[in-house]
Prior knowledge:
- This protein is flat.
- The relative contact order is 0.11.
- 50% of the residues lie in helices and 8% in strands.
- A two-stranded antiparallel ribbon has the order 1-2.
- The chain has one domain.
- By secondary structure, the protein is mainly alpha-helical.
- Zinc ion (ZN) binds at residues 33, 35-36, 38, 73-74, 76-77.
Amino acid sequence: MAAPSDDLRRLLISRYRYGPDMVDIAWRAHFQCEYCDKDLLGSVDAYEWHWEREHVVPTVRGGDDALHNWALACRTCNQFKGAWDPRSDATSPTDRDALVASARAYIQRRRAERGSELDVVRGLILAELDR
Length: 131
Ligand SMILES: [Zn+2]
């Protein structure tokens, strides 16, 4: 994959508040959440508010600030992942793709759990609203 042009890099940094490393993180991820594939260029809301960089291996678990340990994530996925360490489930504790795949699966499980909880509480709320 070719790197962004110098003109685009300068534009992203000067006009769109990217740090130099953020350009590389977002570029590598094709501006999609690495955990759910959300297109972070797909809407003003997504672009303005819903993406972040996050540590694949959390710093509290020994992860570093090197480019390979950063992932582009939507805010929701970053919240679901939290400080969970993908090395606990990954097929390789050092391969970035394996770590991202592990985190992706973990986030999908958490999202499904929360979806089930939402179904329950939605039912309770709607039942009371209908009284
Ligand atoms: Zn996401």
